[in-house]
Amino acid sequence: MIRTRLTQMFGLHYPIVLAPMGGVSGGRLAAEVSNAGGLGLVGGGYGDSAWLRQQLFLAKRESRGPWGVGFITWSVDRSLIELALEHEPSLIMLSFGDPRPYARVIKSMSCKLMCQVQDLEGARIAQEAGADVIVAQGSEAGGHGGSRATLPLVPAVADAVAPTPVVAAGGIADGRGLAAALMLGAQGALIGTRFYASVEALAPDLAKQRVVAAHGDLTSRTRVFDLVRRLGWPEANTGRALRNRFLERWDGRESELAAALESEHPAYLDAVRRADFDTAVVWAGEAVDLIKDVERAAALVARIGAEASLQLAMGAGLARTSVGTPPSPASSNVTQTA
């Protein structure tokens, strides 16, 4: 067990949060992560209410611990927030937009508010909104994000919003990454790509195998997949994906792609239906190097937590007093118990 303010807030065994990956983090995956001692989040995506209702039902039915749901703030409306709240999640996470219009209704239902940010301005807005937890997401993350790297962003956000607890995201796929996040002042880690390649994830098997086979230098931040899908993402929020033939064709030619959407958009949708990932997107972060196989989510939570515990103990052993007595484990931010 690793004890932080995040684990105390939600009664977790490990400070591990499942990223709410749209169309991938369904109710069963969220429940598996929560039941293993982490915090599972359903990915609300772009707000398909029928899909969301089904996945929220699964999460509520199968979870024995706290769970939540994440939304893209600019794509959500109040009806979707209320739909989520009907299923009594422990928290709602809002990313990519001003959370203030929805904060009051969320917190009025005794539901925690988690906000994901990519810069200090966003962190301050999230704190103003009353966020109970703030996720500082670095550019190494898979899917949409900003431009700042995880290593300098996390401590900067932790300092800026103290005492609000911060969770680190971006480039974290094993216990070493979780331990490092805790040393940066985070209270936990939000992990996406590693759980993308899990048995319970809703991603197609071919996409999971591409993640397993990939290397970090085969990912890129890009706008081409949002352009071809005709999604209105802010230009600042590019998405990190595995490079494929479609990306190689259009990278740097975004204006030409925009002019060719009449033919490219339906062709892309057809590729998605056929699971043709030479065209269709596979969102993935730089930590794909650390992913060697598709595993069950519960096993991932247990192993990442155990690895982090070992790393924290080893770190404590590196800093000894002159008389050879080790300090408290790793940091005052973290407590380990058996």
**Sheet with most strands:** 8 strands, parallel
Number of strands: 13
Strand order of the main beta sheet, please? 2-10-9-7-6-5-4-3
Query: What is the molecular shape?
Result: globular
Radius of gyration: 19 Å
Strand content: 5-15%
List the total number of helices: 15
In total, how many domains does the architecture comprise? Answer: 2
CATH superfamily of the largest domain, please?
Aldolase class I
Q: Output the helix-strand order.
A: EHEHEHEHEHEHEEHEHEHHEHEHHHHE
Proportion of residues in helical segments: 40-55%
| CATH topology assignment of the largest domain | TIM Barrel
Low-confidence stretches: 327-331
Structural class: alpha/beta
CATH architecture of the largest domain: Alpha-Beta Barrel
- Span between termini: 6 Å
Indicate the CATH class of the largest domain: Alpha Beta
Mean pLDDT: 94
